[in-house]
Protein backbone atom coordinates (compact mmCIF):
# COMPACT_ATOMS: atom_id res chain seq x y z
CA UNK A 1 0.00 0.00 0.00
CA UNK A 2 1.26 3.50 -0.80
CA UNK A 3 0.15 6.56 1.08
CA UNK A 4 -0.72 9.48 -1.18
CA UNK A 5 -0.59 12.99 0.15
CA UNK A 6 -2.22 15.92 -1.58
CA UNK A 7 0.60 18.16 -2.58
CA UNK A 8 1.45 20.76 -5.16
CA UNK A 9 0.78 19.03 -8.49
CA UNK A 10 0.60 15.60 -6.83
CA UNK A 11 4.40 15.32 -7.16
CA UNK A 12 6.37 12.17 -6.41
CA UNK A 13 7.80 13.92 -3.37
CA UNK A 14 4.30 14.20 -1.91
CA UNK A 15 3.89 10.40 -1.60
CA UNK A 16 5.27 8.33 1.24
CA UNK A 17 5.30 4.58 1.74
CA UNK A 18 2.87 2.79 4.02
CA UNK A 19 5.73 2.15 6.43
CA UNK A 20 5.33 5.74 7.61
CA UNK A 21 1.54 5.84 7.89
CA UNK A 22 1.20 4.97 11.59
CA UNK A 23 3.74 7.44 12.94
CA UNK A 24 2.73 10.31 10.68
CA UNK A 25 -0.75 10.53 12.18
CA UNK A 26 0.69 12.15 15.29
CA UNK A 27 2.91 14.63 13.45
CA UNK A 28 2.08 18.31 13.30
CA UNK A 29 1.98 20.38 10.10
CA UNK A 30 4.76 22.77 9.24
CA UNK A 31 3.86 26.36 8.43
CA UNK A 32 3.70 25.63 4.69
CA UNK A 33 1.63 22.45 5.03
CA UNK A 34 -0.96 23.77 7.46
CA UNK A 35 -4.52 23.59 6.16
CA UNK A 36 -3.70 21.73 2.94
CA UNK A 37 -5.22 18.38 3.94
CA UNK A 38 -1.89 16.60 3.65
CA UNK A 39 -0.78 13.71 5.78
CA UNK A 40 0.70 15.97 8.43
CA UNK A 41 4.45 16.46 8.85
CA UNK A 42 6.42 17.99 11.70
CA UNK A 43 7.90 21.44 11.25
CA UNK A 44 11.60 21.57 10.50
CA UNK A 45 13.73 21.35 13.63
CA UNK A 46 17.13 22.52 12.39
CA UNK A 47 18.38 26.06 12.43
CA UNK A 48 19.22 27.45 8.97
CA UNK A 49 22.95 26.84 9.52
CA UNK A 50 22.33 23.22 10.60
CA UNK A 51 20.55 22.13 7.41
CA UNK A 52 21.93 19.53 5.06
CA UNK A 53 22.88 20.67 1.58
CA UNK A 54 20.76 17.78 0.26
CA UNK A 55 17.60 18.76 2.13
CA UNK A 56 17.80 22.53 2.59
CA UNK A 57 14.83 22.84 0.19
CA UNK A 58 12.74 20.30 2.17
CA UNK A 59 10.85 21.68 5.15
CA UNK A 60 8.84 18.60 6.17
CA UNK A 61 10.30 16.45 8.93
CA UNK A 62 8.81 12.97 9.37
CA UNK A 63 9.06 10.64 12.35
CA UNK A 64 10.44 7.59 10.57
CA UNK A 65 10.29 4.19 12.28
CA UNK A 66 13.84 3.10 13.14
CA UNK A 67 12.99 -0.44 12.01
CA UNK A 68 12.49 0.58 8.35
CA UNK A 69 15.84 2.34 7.96
CA UNK A 70 18.53 0.56 5.98
CA UNK A 71 22.05 1.62 7.00
CA UNK A 72 24.44 -0.36 4.78
CA UNK A 73 27.67 1.34 5.87
CA UNK A 74 29.02 0.56 9.36
CA UNK A 75 29.30 3.63 11.57
CA UNK A 76 32.53 4.92 13.12
CA UNK A 77 31.16 6.36 16.37
CA UNK A 78 32.61 8.65 19.01
CA UNK A 79 30.99 7.50 22.30
CA UNK A 80 31.20 10.99 23.87
CA UNK A 81 29.34 12.49 20.93
CA UNK A 82 26.59 9.84 21.20
CA UNK A 83 26.25 10.52 24.96
CA UNK A 84 26.06 14.26 24.35
CA UNK A 85 23.33 13.78 21.73
CA UNK A 86 21.43 11.49 24.10
CA UNK A 87 21.45 14.23 26.75
CA UNK A 88 20.31 16.85 24.23
CA UNK A 89 17.52 14.56 22.97
CA UNK A 90 16.26 14.16 26.53
CA UNK A 91 16.51 17.87 27.40
CA UNK A 92 15.62 19.67 24.16
CA UNK A 93 15.09 17.31 21.18
CA UNK A 94 14.39 20.15 18.75
CA UNK A 95 18.06 21.16 18.98
CA UNK A 96 19.04 17.94 17.18
CA UNK A 97 18.68 18.24 13.38
CA UNK A 98 16.81 15.49 11.51
CA UNK A 99 18.70 12.88 9.52
CA UNK A 100 18.43 12.62 5.73
CA UNK A 101 16.74 9.52 4.32
CA UNK A 102 16.67 8.43 0.69
CA UNK A 103 13.27 6.98 -0.25
CA UNK A 104 13.48 4.60 -3.19
CA UNK A 105 10.59 2.79 -4.87
CA UNK A 106 11.47 -0.74 -5.91
CA UNK A 107 10.67 -2.22 -9.33
CA UNK A 108 7.52 -3.83 -7.92
CA UNK A 109 6.44 -0.90 -5.73
CA UNK A 110 8.33 -1.69 -2.52
CA UNK A 111 9.42 1.19 -0.29
CA UNK A 112 13.06 1.34 0.79
CA UNK A 113 14.45 3.93 3.21
CA UNK A 114 18.25 4.32 3.13
CA UNK A 115 20.22 6.43 5.58
CA UNK A 116 23.93 7.10 5.18
CA UNK A 117 24.67 10.09 7.40
CA UNK A 118 23.54 11.00 10.90
CA UNK A 119 25.32 8.02 12.46
CA UNK A 120 25.68 9.63 15.90
CA UNK A 121 22.07 10.84 15.90
CA UNK A 122 20.89 7.38 14.86
CA UNK A 123 22.99 5.73 17.60
CA UNK A 124 21.66 8.17 20.22
CA UNK A 125 18.04 7.40 19.26
CA UNK A 126 18.85 3.67 19.34
CA UNK A 127 20.49 3.93 22.77
CA UNK A 128 17.39 5.74 24.08
CA UNK A 129 15.18 2.95 22.66
CA UNK A 130 13.29 5.43 20.47
CA UNK A 131 10.94 3.82 17.97
CA UNK A 132 11.19 6.73 15.52
CA UNK A 133 13.74 9.30 14.40
CA UNK A 134 13.06 12.71 12.83
CA UNK A 135 14.09 12.65 9.18
CA UNK A 136 13.81 14.57 5.96
CA UNK A 137 12.71 12.27 3.16
CA UNK A 138 14.50 12.65 -0.18
CA UNK A 139 12.61 10.97 -3.06
CA UNK A 140 15.42 9.13 -4.87
CA UNK A 141 16.12 6.59 -7.60
CA UNK A 142 18.09 3.38 -7.89
CA UNK A 143 20.67 5.41 -9.81
CA UNK A 144 21.05 7.72 -6.77
CA UNK A 145 21.55 4.68 -4.53
CA UNK A 146 24.22 3.35 -6.92
CA UNK A 147 26.18 6.57 -6.24
CA UNK A 148 26.56 5.42 -2.63
CA UNK A 149 26.79 1.66 -3.04
CA UNK A 150 28.29 1.10 -6.50
CA UNK A 151 28.20 -2.52 -7.61
CA UNK A 152 26.90 -3.52 -4.17
CA UNK A 153 23.52 -1.91 -4.94
CA UNK A 154 20.81 -4.55 -4.35
CA UNK A 155 17.92 -5.32 -6.66
CA UNK A 156 14.97 -3.56 -5.01
CA UNK A 157 11.51 -4.94 -5.68
What does this structure look like?
- The chain is of the alpha/beta class.
- Helix content is 22%, strand content 20%.
- It has four helices and seven strands; from the N terminus they run E-E-H-E-E-H-E-E-H-E-H.
- The chain has a five-stranded mixed β-sheet. Strands 1-2 form a two-stranded antiparallel ribbon.
- Strand 5 and strand 6 (111-114) form a beta hairpin.
- The model is unreliable at 1-14 and 21-48 (pLDDT under 50).
Summarize the structure in short.
The chain is an alpha/beta fold and 157 residues long.
What is the helix fraction of residues, given as a range?
10-25%
* Tally of DSSP helical segments: 4
List the secondary-structure elements in sequence, H or E.
Answer: EEHEEHEEHEH
What can be said about the biggest beta sheet? 5 strands, mixed
The assigned structural class equals alpha/beta
Walk across the major sheet and give the strand order: 3-7-5-6-4
Give me the count of strands.
Answer: 7
Overall geometry comes to globular
End-to-end separation in angstroms reads 14 Å
Radius of gyration: 15 Å
Low-confidence stretches: 1-14, 21-48
- The pLDDT mean sits at 78
**What percentage of the residues does DSSP assign to strands (E)?**
15-25%
Features of the shown structure:
157 residues, alpha/beta, two-stranded antiparallel ribbon, 4 helices, 7 strands, 22% helix, 20% strand, globular, disordered N terminus
Write the layout of secondary structure elements.
Blueprint: E1 2-4, E2 15-17, H1 21-24, E3 62-65, E4 69-70, H2 79-91, E5 99-105, E6 111-114, H3 119-127, E7 132-140, H4 142-149
Parallel strand pairs: 4-6, 5-7
Antiparallel strand pairs: 1-2, 3-7, 5-6
